[in-house]
Design goal:
Helices cover 61% and strands 7% of the residues. It has 584 residues and is of the alpha/beta class. The strands form three sheets. Strands 1-5-4-3-2 form a five-stranded mixed β-sheet. Helix 3 packs parallel to helix 7 and helix 17 (424-451) packs across helix 18 (458-466).
């Protein structure tokens, strides 16, 4: 499904707030009457997890009616973590189709299920309708979130690839970030029945009387409704807590990092002597053979690469021998029985009634005992599998079984840019220095990104400033001065809907800090001549004024399929710039 189809086309994004519809009002009235007549029975029987809506009842935080989620536990845990962190109940529902507008469907479902706190009415419903190609997010009347359109679109890339697990996790992760900013305020939304009835009273006097009757019924039945909602919420929390407790026990089956073999532990010491004057071309050719998993017999080149740290020679036989599954574990034949017993015990524990805490505790202890018995088998098998994979990754050569290091990978990628006649020692030194420079720039980029306010232009601005000055503080100060000047002088830019921060970054990259007024004047003239805003910015950045030159560069840019500003730079930097570009 396409990216644009997954987004709600409404102007306010994929989010909608507003009270229930007339259809919901009728359901609420009927629910109130049923609550009045059936209150004693409700008090005696455990209520369902949630009422049925359109044939659907909730299955936890995530209800996958369409059956597209693969790892239910992983997705459920991701949503549950956001609920636990922020305290707002979230219902994620995936359906094949809705039959009515998806936003209305999500709103009605949230009201029927009672998503959110009874007092705060702060629930969140995330609806993914496959047939409608829509992701809708609605909130209760006690919670308004700004920017839910971006949240709803966060899963689009994964949805396009058929990864619905990843798409839902991306959406709730984006929602987590939005909730963490505190951009909430009370407003109209997925409403309680009372709020909805009051919203309807201004239509006609008769409708007002009907609304009053419904309000009265709801107030009388409010105690039962609140009781049922509180019970439902409590059961969900118990279920989530118990799942987490069982997951913690089962997680102990996985081997810890220090229990697994490390390739470095089986690396032979580098040779004390090696001919490091080997030509870079010869050494990188031998390295390429190793990376392509072909045997290389160039002992001198391989030894030089080993000495410089681009290769490691591994004792493959010792690695395999050290990680054989112990005989007593292989001979017992008990692993299969323990695997089945652990799964059965975990399922039995989760099936225990939500009030039977002591019985659940006993069951968890049994799960833990079985996990302790199974763990040695799992660790031994995990160690053996990884050892086999590590041995398989090694490449046999004239100097032994070798592994390519990070330095070796970088050297192979940079080989085309290196002087093939230089010594491999000099080339590695040059590459290492470049890597340190790039690492420093990456750190500077991250530092700049952290200093800048959050916006769509933040990554581009950070990248521009990273090349501007070695000192991040000085770079940000220069940028802020330019941005303020451009904001003060460039009202026409804002009026045309352009991002002033992005244009400030472009001026910095062009080293045009002192030409703000000239840039704004040229931009205004080009706009008056009929150029669209983006094109006018390019003309202003390159300082183009002469109509004949503008037309010549425009034709050439179209021919080269390049931006106007890049084409102008090619022509101005060197006489043969365009020809060089064509040859490249």
């Amino acid at each position: 499904m396409s990216l644009d189809l997954m987004r709600n086309p409404h102007g306010d994004g994929s989010a909608r707030t507003g009270g229930p519809t007339r259809r919901v009002l009728a359901v609420l009235a009927a629910t109130a009457i049923i609550a009045l007549t059936a209150a004693p029975a409700s008090a005696q029987e455990a209520p369902p997890a949630c009422p049925e809506y359109d044939g659907i009842t909730c299955e936890g935080w995530v209800t996958d009616v369409a059956g597209v989620i693969i790892d239910d536990d992983r997705v459920e845990a991701a949503v549950g973590a956001v609920v636990g962190k922020h305290g707002h109940e979230i219902a994620v529902v995936i359906v094949d189709s809705t039959g009515i507008p998806p936003d209305q469907y999500a709103d009605e479902l949230g009201n029927t299920w009672g998503v959110g706190s009874v007092d705060r009415n702060d629930g969140i419903v995330i609806l993914v309708s496959l047939g409608d190609h829509r992701t809708e997010i609605v909130t209760g009347s006690g919670l308004t979130l700004q920017g839910l359109d971006q949240v709803a679109g966060a899963g689009n890339t994964s949805f396009q690839a058929g990864d619905f697990d990843g798409g839902i996790i991306a959406i709730v992760g984006s929602l987590d970030a939005l909730l963490s900013t505190g951009s909430t305020e009370p407003d109209g939304g997925m409403g309680s029945g009372i709020d909805a009835a009051r919203d309807e009273t201004d239509e006609t006097e008769g409708a007002g009387r009907v609304g009053s009757v419904i309000v009265g019924l709801l107030l009388i039945g409010g105690g039962s409704a609140m009781f049922l909602s509180a019970r439902t919420t409590a059961r969900r929390r118990v279920q989530t807590r118990r799942r987490d407790r069982i997951d913690q026990e089962l997680a102990r089956l996985e081997p810890a990092g220090h229990e697994l073999p490390q390739l470095a532990e089986y690396a032979l010491s580098t040779p004390a002597n090696a001919d490091l004057s080997i030509r870079t071309g010869d050494a990188t050719a031998a390295l390429a053979e190793v990376i392509d998993r072909h045997r290389s017999d160039d002992i001198e080149s391989l030894t030089a690469l080993w000495r410089l740290g681009a290769l490691e020679v591994i004792e493959a036989g010792r690695l395999e021998a050290d990680h054989e599954v112990p005989l007593e574990l292989r001979a017992s034949g008990e692993r299969r029985m323990l695997e089945d017993a652990v799964q059965a015990a975990a399922q039995d524990a989760l099936a225990i009634g939500h009030r039977e805490e002591s019985e659940f505790g006993i069951s968890v202890a049994e799960v833990g005992r079985l996990v302790d018995a199974l763990r040695p088998h799992r660790v031994a098998a995990g160690r053996r599998r990884l050892a086999e994979a590590l041995v398989d990754s090694l490449v046999p050569t004239a100097i032994g079984s070798v592994s390519v290091t990070d330095l070796g990978e970088r050297l192979a990628r940079a080989s085309a840019a290196l002087d093939t006649n230089s010594s491999i020692e000099d080339s590695v030194a040059e590459l290492s220095a470049a890597y340190l420079t790039a690492s420093g720039k990456t750190e500077r980029l991250q530092s700049l990104y952290d200093r800048l306010p959050d916006s769509t232009t933040r990554p581009a601005v950070a990248a521009a400033l990273a090349d501007l000055d070695e000192d991040p503080d000085e770079a940000v100060e220069r940028y802020e001065r330019l941005r303020r000047e451009l904001a003060a002088e460039g009202s026409s830019l804002t009026a045309d809907g352009l991002e002033v921060p992005a244009i400030a970054a472009l001026l910095l990259m062009n080293r045009d800090e002192g030409n703000v007024l000239d840039f704004v004047r040229v931009y205004g003239r080009r706009r008056s001549a009929g150029s669209p805003p983006a094109e006018a910015v390019e003309y202003a950045l390159t300082g183009l004024r002469d109509p004949d030159e503008i037309e010549r560069i425009r034709r050439l840019a179209r021919d080269l399929e390049l931006p106007i500003s890049v084409t102008a730079a090619l022509m101005r930097r060197r006489d043969d710039g365009v020809e060089v570009f064509r040859r490249l």
